[in-house]
Design a protein that fits this description.
Layout: H1 5-20, H2 32-53, H3 58-70, H4 74-82, H5 93-103, H6 112-124, H7 136-163, H8 169-172, H9 183-190, H10 203-211, H11 220-228, H12 231-236, H13 243-259
Helix pairs in contact: 1-3, 2-3, 2-7, 3-6, 3-7, 4-5, 5-6, 6-7, 9-13
The structure holds fe (ii) ion.
């Protein structure tokens, strides 16, 4: 099976044309279009590097690229419709993206197997606790997009928390930036329990949950990048100086060190 460079170019051109329509919006969110457009570009770059590190063949790399290109296509319609990126308050952007791709028949010229993998990987890219996937090929692409997406969000978030004086509701999920944090979230992270998202009330809670994303990372390549780029310490440096938060940070570092066989 193959996907030609010409087909990839068609998808890239479609993405530019479709998302270009949203540039003209005048939203209350700052640079909503640019944020998601840049995120998509970065996820494509992360995806390609990750795929190459795993020695994927050119067919697999192209499938991975198309998934990365379209994984957040629903963000643009979400933004137009609701002026918000908060799925909780609006709708699931992954499912919305799949609706957009189907509406415009974007993937219809691909072979059914490739189309099905791309659709399912997009559907599962943002699922909090994804189901165990039996199909190894699908599992590979779901894990790839989930890692590549997190790598860019880690970069964006850690940079934003450390450097930006202004709030950005798209990154901060419209959560209040106070000194509050949930001791229960800390405890769940330390105990290796899936965090109950009902507990997320403040920006600090979201930062803690983001630190816990490392437990959901599939490939050691991604973990090493997260460590080497200083994303954990970057986010950690903006959290309150409290014993339970130190425990979470230590636990996260310990987990990464063990997975990568590093000396603690
Ligand atoms: Fe997404």
């Amino acid at each position: 099976m193959r996907i030609t460079p010409k087909e990839v170019l068609f998808f890239e051109t479609w993405f530019e044309d479709y998302t270009g329509n949203f540039k003209q919006l005048n939203p209350s969110l700052p640079n909503g279009y640019a944020l998601k457009s840049n995120h998509t570009q970065n996820v494509c770059i992360e995806m390609n590097a990750l795929g190459k590190s795993l020695m994927l063949d050119s067919y697999q790399l192209r499938i991975a690229h198309i998934i990365a290109l379209f994984h957040d296509i629903g963000r643009f319609e979400q933004f137009r419709k609701y002026n918000s990126f908060a799925d909780k308050k609006t709708e699931n952007h992954a499912l919305l993206g799949v609706k957009v791709l189907k509406k415009y028949k974007v993937l219809d010229n691909l072979q059914p197997e490739a189309k099905s993998i791309i659709i399912k990987a997009i559907q599962l890219h943002n699922v909090k606790n994804p189901p165990k996937i039996k199909d190894k090929t699908l599992a590979l692409f779901v894990n790839l997009i989930r890692d590549a997406d997190k790598l860019d969000i880690f970069s964006l978030a850690s940079h934003h928390y450390q450097n930006s004086k202004e709030s950005n509701s798209a990154i901060e999920l419209e959560l209040p930036n106070t000194d509050d944090f949930s001791e229960d979230i800390c405890q769940q992270l330390i105990n290796g329990i899936n965090v109950d998202f009902v507990l997320m009330k403040s920006l600090n809670d979201f930062k803690l949950i983001q630190l816990g994303w490392v437990f959901d990372i599939s490939f050691n390549y991604s973990l090493l990048k997260i460590l080497n780029c200083g994303y954990i310490d970057g986010i950690a440096s903006t959290l309150p100086n409290k014993p339970s938060i130190h425990k979470v940070i230590h636990h996260v570092h310990h987990y990464i060190a063990e997975r990568l066989n590093l000396q603690n």
